[in-house]
Amino acid sequence: MPSVIAQVSNSSEDFKNKLLSLYREQLMIVMLELRLKREDEKESYKARQKAKAAKAQNSAENDLDNEEFMKITEVN
Amino acid sequence: MTNTQLISKYISVQKGDITGKCKVCGSGTTSGFKAKDYIKESRFTNNDCLKEIDSDVICENCAACLKDDSLRRSSFICSESGLVYLKKNDIENYLFDLDKYVKGEFVVCITKSFKKHNSFRARVNLNPHVFYIREEDDEYIFDSYVLKDIYKAINRLYLYFAKEDIQTAHYDTKQIIKYGKEQFFIDEAIIKPFRGSKQFELLLHMLNSERRNEIVKKESRRKKKMQNLKETAVEVLNAVWIDIDFESMSNSRKLDFWNEFTGKVKAAANSSVDFERFIERLCQAL
């Protein structure tokens, strides 16, 4: 069970009831917030992937340079 | 009955032995005092309020009122029902429901300097809904029917703006947005015609800051709690969302999945009596 659900399960009955009535009465607002949160997470995931790809490319370029450098030094 | 005759019923009155017409209220007396013992001409500036300016006599009632320091240092209401000294936070209750507190003739005196004489200058009133207030050097009509709505509007504004902002109409734009633009323009239109009047100043003076602070604190606590509740609600659904297996889901279902998810949360919330059952039903439905 995810920790947030476990935490809520362990909180007071009053809090849980309020949470349930929030889902009943203001679900659209909660869903909107959730959607924004998911969008944010998606964006940050994309940004992380992009950064990772860029890093991988940089290191490949560096490898190539080293190889060529070795070749040059071997010839010499 | 004169103002000082009304008030002196409830304060200590000493009797003198001088006969004549009272310099202050103009009524005849057989137990008065020498006026110069009570009215020092060098310091007395309210000559316009004296009814018999040439008289040397002051009646026992006016003398008692002039001598009584509490009458200068407090706001008060006096009628057949008694003399009531008002604390600042009491003023609103008394002025808007005066019929509950006064009987017959009455006077209403407000002080802001806590040193100027009000008692002998107060006008005797009969109508507890529309009456004259003596406020030191000023006298004005207090129409409780009209001013009640203005006071309500000022009280609403006071939850978001300082007294000075309301007094000068120099409002903070951010606060206007928090207050709600529509309601702000409605309330501002209500109070605008009265801004600058003595009545308006009195309404600002009698605003209850302790009550206001209490309401503001309560509201901010409620908002904080609500925010926390909302954040938790989002976190719970997010935790459920993360566990959904999207890889094995068909593309057509994916397209409309937000609506499906919303519908299932709604159904689970409406059909569950407690939180645990809500989570169970939601997970089963997904």
Rough outline of chain B: rod-shaped
Strand order of the largest sheet of chain B: 1-2-3
Fraction of residues in β-strands of chain A = under 5%
Q: Helix fraction of chain A?
A: over 70%
Which blocks of ≥5 consecutive residues of chain B have pLDDT under 50? none
Report the strand count of chain B: 8
Question: Which of globular, elongated, flat, extended, rod-shaped describes the shape of chain A?
Answer: rod-shaped
Uncertain runs of chain A are none
H and E order of chain A:
HHH
Share of β-strand residues of chain B: 5-15%
Number of helices of chain A: 3
- Main sheet record of chain A: none
- How many strands, what sense, and barrel or not for the largest sheet of chain B? 3 strands, antiparallel
Q: Structural class from helices and strands of chain B?
A: alpha+beta
**Cα-atom radius of gyration of chain A:** 26 Å
Q: What is the subunit organization of this protein? A: heterodimer
Task: Indicate the radius of gyration of chain B in whole angstroms.
Answer: 32 Å
Secondary-structure content class of chain A:
mainly alpha
The gist of it:
The complex is a heterodimer of chains A (76) and B (286). With 76 residues, chain A is mainly alpha-helical.
Structure description:
The complex is a heterodimer of chains A (76) and B (286). Chain A is mostly helical and 76 residues long. Chain A has helices at 3-10, 13-25, 27-75. The model of chain A has no long low-confidence stretch (mean pLDDT 82). Chain B is of the alpha+beta class. Chain B contains 14 helices and 8 strands. Chain B has helices at 3-7, 60-67, 69-73, 91-96, 98-101, 144-158, 163-168, 173-179, 181-191, 198-205, 209-242, 251-255, 257-271, 275-285, and strands spanning 18-21, 28-34, 57-58, 75-79, 82-86, 106-109, 130-135, 138-143. In chain B, β4 (75-79) and β5 (82-86) form a beta hairpin. In chain B, α6 runs antiparallel to α9 (181-191). The mean pLDDT of chain B is 92. Classes of the chains: A mainly alpha (76), B alpha+beta (286).
